[in-house]
Structure formats: structure tokens, C-alpha cells
Amino acid sequence: MGFSVSGATVVISVGLLVSAATLYPALDRYSERRLEAVDGEHERALDRQNTALGAANATYNASTDRLVVTAENTGTTTLDVDRVDLLVDGRYRTVSAASVTVDGGAGTATWLPGERLRIEITRSTAPSRVKIVAGPGVAVATEVR
Amino acid sequence: MASGSVSELIVFIAAVSVAAGVSGAMVTTVGGITNSLDDRGESVSAAIETDVEIISDPGSGAVYDSANTEVTLLIKNTGGRTLPTDDTSVEILVDGRYVAPSAYTVTTLGGGAWRDGAVVRVTVDRSLGAGDHRATVIVQSDRETIGFRV
């Protein structure tokens, strides 16, 4: 009887050890994956909180068919120029890198705090309203003068 | 004496066999739990990394096109991963009513995948009367609503 109990105990103990060895890494992976995702979410929320756009300015020159939109990065985060979206009269307008300058300089991909972004596009009709959306979804809209 | 040893051996084999069965069942069950935990971890992290914003400008009056009876929504991926654009991942409600996948199209502006920072255009075929309306976009676990006037 003693041998039987000992043998069964050993077999159950091995089963418990194998189960624990299988379960622990899975729990660890789950926890790590979740923590990484939560960290990323907090970073995005912080970026959004620190992102602000100053009042935009939009002017249309009917003689040259040029619409010029400017906005200042009044937040404390660096924004990506290629993640800036422009809506003209509510319609999405694709902005080429060549039509964007930051503080007068072309060819930069970053829009630093305190700098003014300028987008110049060609349009045959006068728009009435534009909206600029920065990377984290922070937006500013203005009437066209 | 010999019969006592035989019966002890039988009890031993029986006890070890039962214990082996219990252990095997336990290991199999824990294996299943492990697989479920991995799947759950993946879906939880995907849900946390999913974030979208409706960037349409309701002040421009361009959300609803009365000539074509279409609602157009521009949705920016502000999350941390590339999102699918199929009708099982993007769902639309207009004024709280579900819109069938056959009644809307999702187009990635600029082509390619709906990566973080990219914008998709959702065009919903829906006739609306004059007044205030609401459109809700559900992208996997994230939900965004926009109010507009016709």
C-alpha cells in the first residue's frame, strides 16, 4: 500500500510540474504582451495630450489658383510632416512633400514645436473651409480668406 | 506470502495507472488553457493597440452628399498597428442603425494597407432627411461617433 501511494504521488507530482512548466510561460507571455500594449497606449495618449495646433490661417489667391494653409505646432511634441492630413471643404486632399514647407524650409520630415507648417496647393475654385489634422488626430479648422 | 505480493503489485499498478490518467488529463487541460491564454493575449493587445479617429469636417457640410445620398467618413488610424479594412473589421452605424457591408465601401487613401497614420474613406449609401444625424464607426474594439447636420 505504501508503494502504491508513493508511486501515485510521484506520477501526480510529475504531472503538476509539467503543467506548471507549461502554464507559467504562457501567463508570462500574456502579461508581457498586455503590458507592452498598455505602455504603447499610454505613450500615444501622452503624445496626444502634448500635441496642440495653433490657429490655422488659409488664404486663396484666385488669380494664381493657389491655396496656402499655415498652422503652428504649439504643442511640445515633434510631429511628422508626412502624417499631416489636409481637408479642403471637407474633402481629403493628398498633399505632396513638395508642397509642404516648415518654417520656410522644404525637404524636412519633422515639424518641431514652435514651427509653422505651410501647405501650398493648386485649386481652380475658391474653397470656404480647410482643416489640418496632425498625426495623433489633433486637428484645427479655419475659414478661407 | 506470495499472494500478498501479487495483490500489492496489482494495487500498485492500478494506483499508478489512475495517477497517470489524472496527470495526463491535467497536462492536456493545461495545454488547452495555455493555447487560449496565447490567443487571448493576442486579442487583448490588438484591442489596446487599435485606435481610430474620425477626421471628417462636419462644419464643411461635406459629410453627407444629398445628390448621391452618400455619407462620407474619413477615418485616421491613430493606433499602434496596421488595421484590416474588410467588412468584418470595420462596421458602421448611421443614426444607431446597422449598415450592411454591401451598403458601404472602405478605401485606403493613397493605397496600400491601413497602417498607423493612414486615412481611409468610408462611403455609406444611405438616404437621410434634413436634421441632425450621427454616424458611428466601429473598428474592431474601438468606436468613434461623429454628429453632422443635413
Structure keywords:
heterodimer, A: 145 residues, 5-stranded antiparallel sheet, 4-stranded antiparallel sheet, 1 helix, 11 strands, rod-shaped, B: 150 residues, alpha+beta, Immunoglobulin-like, 2 domains, 9 strands, 33% strand
Would you kindly provide a written description of the structure presented here, covering whatever features stand out?
- With 145 residues, chain A is of the alpha+beta class.
- Chain A folds into 2 domains: 50 residues; 87 residues, Sandwich (Immunoglobulin-like).
- In chain A, 34% of the residues lie in helices and 31% in strands.
- In chain A, strand 6 and strand 7 form a beta hairpin.
- The termini of chain A are far apart.
- The mean pLDDT of chain A is 91.
- With 150 residues, chain B is α+β, with helices and mostly antiparallel strands.
- Chain B has 2 domains: 49 residues; 98 residues, Sandwich (Immunoglobulin-like), CATH 2.60.40.
- In chain B, the strands form 2 sheets. In chain B, strands 1, 2, 3, 6 and 7 form a 5-stranded antiparallel β-sheet that branches.
- In chain B, a hairpin with a 2-residue loop joins strand 8 and strand 9.
- Chain B starts with a helix and ends with a strand.
- The mean pLDDT of chain B is 92.
- Chains A and B meet through helix 1 and strand 10 of A and helix 1 of B.
